[in-house]
């Protein structure tokens, strides 16, 4: 959540975001609503990471491993799943984002989650990071006003414009994912005492001599 909080506070401090209201609860109690958000986005994070990182990446690697070296397989698969992840979120930039180019934000998100999956060698970290970002954007700092009787929001913010900087899917939103990935990589580096390897994920193994 720190990765969402820092760019958002920067946006508020610089005037790119305006605080519309705080503690918008409607008919649902605040903590009940936040618990619902956490559970919902844990489920979302779990299935999206399982499908896009766990299933898609391993199956894509299996399919192309006869064509590329081990490292190139990983690079191709990492980019491929990120693009598919971004395209699958097409509804985000047709209903909320003002410019189709903002799909880059979701492609970058897929790339970062894939990177965490490869470096961490399992789905735990990308699931946690994905769920935390979504939870913070929905319940902590939200740009979407809750519907009547809907999920509460702690801080409701409004961008000063739907520009490439502050608008939905813009640079400030993109920076949250980048910061989350950096923090995740630093955490992995710390717990593994500086030992990180992008090329040895068990699901990406390719038997060749041109690694």
UniProtKB/TrEMBL annotation:
Q: Which domain of life is it from?
A: Archaea
Q: Which GO terms describe its biological process?
A: CAAX-box protein maturation; proteolysis
Q: Where is the CAAX prenyl protease 2/Lysostaphin resistance protein A-like domain?
A: 33-135
Give the InterPro entries listed for this entry.
Rce1/LyrA-like_dom
What Pfam families does the database record attribute to this sequence? Answer: Rce1-like
Transmembrane stretches, by residue range?
30-52, 73-90, 102-120, 171-190
Q: Which GO terms describe its molecular function?
A: endopeptidase activity
For this UniProt record, the keywords arranged alphabetically read as follows: Hydrolase, Membrane, Protease, Transmembrane, Transmembrane helix
Q: Which PANTHER family match?
A: MEMBRANE-ASSOCIATED PROTEASE-RELATED, PROTEASE
The name this protein goes by in its record: CAAX protease family protein
């Amino acid at each position: 959540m720190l990765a969402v909080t820092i760019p958002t506070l920067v946006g508020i401090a610089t005037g790119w975001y305006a605080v519309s209201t705080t503690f918008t609860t409607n008919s649902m109690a605040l903590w009940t609503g936040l618990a619902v958000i956490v559970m919902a986005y844990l489920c979302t994070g779990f299935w999206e990471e399982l499908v896009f990182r766990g299933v898609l990446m391993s199956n894509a690697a299996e399919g192309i491993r006869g064509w590329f070296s081990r490292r190139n397989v990983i690079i191709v698969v990492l980019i491929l799943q990120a693009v598919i992840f971004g395209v699958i979120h097409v509804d985000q930039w047709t209903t909320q984002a003002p410019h189709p180019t903002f799909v880059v934000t979701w492609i970058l998100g897929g790339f970062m989650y894939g990177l965490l999956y490869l470096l961490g060698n399992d789905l735990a970290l990308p699931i946690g990071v994905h769920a935390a970002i979504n939870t913070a954007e929905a319940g902590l700092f939200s740009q979407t006003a809750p519907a009547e009787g809907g999920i509460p929001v702690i801080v409701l913010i409004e961008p000063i414009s739907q520009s490439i900087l502050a608008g939905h899917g813009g640079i400030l939103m993109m920076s949250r994912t980048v910061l989350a990935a950096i923090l995740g990589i630093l955490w992995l580096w710390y717990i593994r005492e500086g030992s990180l390897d992008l090329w040895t994920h068990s699901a990406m193994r390719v038997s060749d001599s041109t690694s």
